[in-house]
Design brief:
- The chain contains four helices and no strands.
- With about 80 residues, it is mainly α.
- The chain has one domain.
- About 20% of the residues are buried.
């Protein structure tokens, strides 16, 4: 579930932009029905197995998958949408 191209280009894996990237990416996800379905599915999977987020970025801490994981975890706590 990738962020919009413009947002990824702006972020460019710069650690100093990661918090803003997470916020902006989260805003994109909030209005995306596919993202909501994914969140609900992750919640179901997590009842009896792990969910793995795969990525190809060199930076292990500041990337799209980490931002998506943060969003999913936050939304699972608030019962998705």
């Amino acid at each position: 579930m990738a962020s919009f191209v413009e947002l990824r280009k702006w972020f460019d894996h710069e650690p100093g932009k990661f918090d803003d990237f997470c916020r902006k990416y989260g805003q994109e996800l909030e209005v995306n029905e596919e993202a909501n379905r994914f969140c609900i599915q992750c919640k179901e999977w997590l009842k009896d197995q792990n969910v793995t987020f795969v990525f190809a970025a060199k930076n292990l801490d500041c990337n799209n998958a980490v931002a998506l994981k943060i969003w999913v975890e936050d939304n699972i706590r608030s019962e998705c949408r």
